[in-house]
Amino acid sequence: MASASFAKLNAASSAWIGQQSFGQRPGSSSARLTTRRVSLPIRASSYKDELVQTAKSIASPGRGILAIDESNATCGKRLASIGLDNTEVNRQAYRQLLLTTPGLGEYISGAILFEETLYQSTTDGKKFVDCLRNENIVPGIKVDKGLVPLPGSNNESWCQGLDGLASRSAEYYKQGARFAKWRTVVSIPCGPSALAVKEAAWGLARYAAISQDNGLVPIVEPEILLDGDHGIERTLEVAEKVWSEVFYYLAENNVVFEGILLKPSMVTPGAEHKAKAPPEIIAKYTLTMLKRRVPPAVPGIMFLSGGQSEVEATLNLNAMNQSPNPWHVSFSYARALQNTVLKTWQGHPENVEAAQKALLVRAKANSLAQLGKYSAEGESEEAKKGMFVKGYTY
Ligand code: 13P
Predict the structure, then answer these.
(1) Tens digits of per-residue pLDDT, 196-251?
(2) How far is 57 from 60, CA to CA, in rounded Å?
(3) Which of 79, 200, 363, 377 could form an SS bridge with 84, CB 3.0 to 4.6 Å?
(4) Model's pTM, two decimal places?
(5) Which domain holds residue 161?
(6) In degrees, to the nearest 5, what angle opens at C-alpha 51 toward C-alphas 163 and 222?
(7) What is the CATH number of the domain that holds 209?
(8) 263 assigned to active site
(9) Ligand 1 touching residue 183 (CB < 6 A)
(10) Which GO terms describe its biological process (predicted)?
(11) Whose CA is nearest to atom 2 of ligand 1?
(12) Given the CA of residue 112, which atom of ligand 1 is nearest to it?
């Protein structure tokens, strides 16, 4: 391609790409003679400074993200585990418990909400987004529309939601959201096929560009599922491939790296592998992968827990923060922050306070892990249980 050798990115506001004159076939002698540079101004998001600021405040020391963006179907599974029906009232009660926990903002810098929650209020009429703002927690929104089968692949899936995303994002911004999340998955036992990896990376990059254009910091989450009996080396190999494609397409879509956050899976052996890896090994492999693939311009790495137990997820995060990293290395856990809370609550109003305390215990533990100062001494048996489900959807 004649243009590639001229490619040059110009600061924040535009990119200039050398191009052939219009109407010439590439490679033809007339094209060679008339090839010249043509400037193609590319508009940078008018939100650029705000995006950088938002990302920085989410990636602040000793804090991480509370992910409670379960779709109604997945939230229903959570509620069913404690014998509650999947009604709007029960979902609101559960989210109210979480989002009104006093002092949460000391450990939590952002909360990812499902659309229903973004527009909901507490039972006494206070908007959930305002409850968060009062605690200095940035409200976020899940914007993908879930996974569907990917035709032509090896039983893999792709993530929907790009149609209408720009207008939805603009509305979410008006409602108070300042960051977004798009979760797609890659399955190691299914290949992964080159097609599935490319589709995942391209979708994430388009979503990231659209989010930034509408003032939302995109969380980029290609979840490499824990499913499978493969060893840790294989996870490393797949993770490196996936992240290299993701960054290739992020760059191609002119995404501002200083205004994104990543939500990777930790590099672990498959959940059905014969041996578990200790936190030091998981930290070593995960950081190796990240250092090889993630530019230091990215402000924060906010891990998902993927079905690990609460204690495992915290120990692994702690191990990754034993020496300085080029980025803020923290958490964006759903299951690893909610397991004990749900079991403590059981849907009874008289248990709300105890459940909120349980949330603070987990949030504080992960805050300490973000600072590399966590010890698992005194953790409950419940916190050591995982919530791994094969082929988990969100
Ligand atoms: P966990 O894997 O931590 O349950 O969360 C996944 C996720 O994407 C939540 O936003």
Answers:
(1) 999 999 999 999 999 999 999 999 999 999 999 999 999 999 999 999 999 999 99
(2) 5
(3) 79
(4) 0.88
(5) 47-375
(6) 55
(7) 3.20.20.70
(8) yes
(9) yes
(10) fructose 1,6-bisphosphate metabolic process; glycolytic process
(11) 306
(12) 10
